[in-house]
Write a structure and sequence with these properties.
9-stranded mixed sheet, alpha/beta, binds glutamine, Rossmann fold
Length: about 240
């Protein structure tokens, strides 16, 4: 039994949104917390179940258009995620999950579908599918190293004044305007798969620090090596 003080990680709708190994983000958070002696409890919330309000870090992944529409409807009706965010929970939303957080996104025919409105963004269908590697330089305020991952989406995302761009793309499409992802408060949205947190452990630590405070450093030599190889394969250096 996890103790009451365990860090609660909530994976939303594994039955609807879980493409490209995005569930790996859960594993990375668990491992990076546990390697520091922070106890974790992970809650898998299927789409028929209510979203608990008392989680610390919420994760949602990418998916096809139809499950994405269903997920948005269910999250809106449920309201648990809105309440969790109002209580200060942290969140990483990827691709379809990222689009859902906004006011609107494009459905399977490109029709506008209502999002859940917790991020000031609006998505719609772009001119072409964005597929391939993505490399982006993170907003200086967050102080994170270069982001790496891959993308596969039709949607483009416009950021409103209530959010800041997470990063500026050097390779790939991201939001479609030279930027990739966004953040506001303790919510991060991104088009990155990889899974995102496996390819970018510093982003995992940012989310953890928002709920667990200062973190002890970890020996990431092996991960740094993998990141260097990955970036060199894309950037050709
Ligand atoms: N259906 C959305 C799009 O194509 C999200 C895709 C995804 O999550 N990979 O933009």
């Amino acid at each position: 039994m996890p103790s009451d003080s365990a860090l609660r990680i909530v994976w939303i709708y594994p039955d609807l949104l879980s493409t490209y190994g995005d569930q790996g983000n859960v594993l990375v958070l668990e491992q990076r917390a546990q390697r520091r002696g922070i106890e974790t409890e992970t809650i898998y919330v299927r789409s028929a179940d209510p979203v608990p309000e008392s989680g610390d870090i919420y994760l949602i992944g990418g998916g096809e258009d139809r499950p994405q529409i269903l997920a948005a409807e269910r999250l809106r009706k449920d309201g648990g995620l809105h309440r969790a965010i109002a209580r200060g929970a942290a969140m990483l939303a990827v691709c379809a999950g990222y689009q859902i957080m906004g006011s609107t996104f494009g459905g399977e025919e490109g029709q506008p579908v209502d999002g859940i409105g917790v991020l000031d963004i609006a998505s719609s269908r772009g001119p072409a599918r964005a597929v391939g590697e993505l490399v982006a330089e993170v907003d200086a305020e967050l102080g994170l190293p270069t982001l790496t991952g891959f993308e596969n989406h039709m949607g483009v995302t416009r950021l409103g004044p209530g959010v800041k761009a997470l990063s500026r793309t050097t390779v790939g499409v991201g939001n479609g305007d030279g930027f990739e992802g966004c953040y506001a408060g303790h919510i991060v949205g991104t088009y990155l798969h990889g899974p995102a947190l496996a390819r970018n452990p510093a982003l995992a630590d940012l989310l953890l620090s928002w709920r667990a405070g200062d973190l002890a450093p970890l020996d990431d030599t092996r991960y740094e090596q993998l990141r260097r190889e990955r970036l060199a394969a894309v950037l050709g250096s």
